[in-house]
Amino acid sequence: MKPYHLLTILVYANWAEAVSTVIVIVGTVTITSSGAAPTANSTSYTNKAVFEKDILAAHNFYRAEHNATTLKWNDTSAKYASKWSARCEFEHSHGPTGENLVAGASNATTSVDVWGSERKSYNWGKPGFSEETGHFTQLVWTNTTSVGCGRTSCQGKGGTDGWYVVCEYWPPGNVVGDGNRYFKENVAKIIKGKLGDTVEGGVGSNGAGWDERRNIWSVLVVAAGVGMGVVL
């Protein structure tokens, strides 16, 4: 399946400062594959408390390796994410928060590993947004302080396979503009571990390569919402 792109631009006028804020939401749908072979208990999805604990811990695993502050759980964002996932529509909600989506991963931590594994493709020499790394940059975005996630067992409903996971981030990451200054400031280089580390594989793991993962199972992934930029 070839990627397709959705672009929505919303403009809000800030009359007090005479500036406009442009929010650009880009969605990219691709066929990719998950992280390591499934090992987590199925309650990672079926038990709400376990799901929240596992997915928050997985987020903070990657943030710690990139010198970002620990995220706190946001119940408001989680309720929004749960309502959106329940629709089983594999597309972005275009809401006010940053957003990562994934369907078909075996458990909560693998869902985050799918996003985190994109860091192997990120170029710190040329920081900025790309469709290949947008999940990762939102995942470790320094200015983001909270996350809330929801999940639904869609099992083909709405064309969405398996468990559908939606995560909402506040403040949103992937802020574009000003010569990619925001990416320079908010996407730090790895300070411990290796780029191939995964939550499922553990620290120091080189992880499975994309070809190896493809032989395990396939996961549909939608790119993160791109974010916000300020136009003077």
From TrEMBL:
<dbReference type="Pfam" id="PF00188">
    <property type="entry name" value="CAP"/>
</dbReference>
<dbReference type="InterPro" id="IPR018244">
    <property type="entry name" value="Allrgn_V5/Tpx1_CS"/>
</dbReference>
<dbReference type="InterPro" id="IPR035940">
    <property type="entry name" value="CAP_sf"/>
</dbReference>
<feature type="domain" description="SCP">
    <location>
        <begin position="50"/>
        <end position="177"/>
    </location>
</feature>
<feature type="signal peptide">
    <location>
        <begin position="1"/>
        <end position="18"/>
    </location>
</feature>
<dbReference type="InterPro" id="IPR001283">
    <property type="entry name" value="CRISP-related"/>
</dbReference>
<dbReference type="InterPro" id="IPR014044">
    <property type="entry name" value="CAP_dom"/>
</dbReference>
<keyword id="KW-0732">Signal</keyword>
<dbReference type="GO" id="GO:0005576">
    <property type="term" value="C:extracellular region"/>
</dbReference>
<protein>
    <recommendedName>
        <fullName>SCP domain-containing protein</fullName>
    </recommendedName>
</protein>
